[in-house]
Design brief:
The structure is a single chain. By secondary structure, this protein is mainly alpha-helical. It has one domain: Orthogonal Bundle (434 Repressor (Amino-terminal Domain)). The protein contains five helices and no strands. Helix 2 packs across helix 4. The N and C termini lie close together (11 Å).
Length: 84
Amino acid sequence: MWNEAKAEQLGATLRRLRNDRGLSQESLAYQAGITKNQLQLIEAGRSTGRKDGAGPSNPRMATLSGLAAVLEVSVAGLMADAEL
């Protein structure tokens, strides 16, 4: 079951991979076809910008695929790296 802890694991992994490749949030988001705000929320593991938000982020497969492509990993590799 998807929960806040898993969303945070995914976000931390995305942040690490992005930093390892020297990409800004803006650059990664643009190349992946999402907004910088969406990426910020995914990296934070939240579905909204509110601290008491509606729950964990749960990005669509198309979003994960776009992010993984820019980061030069497979979606499966991304999930394995995040230990999900």
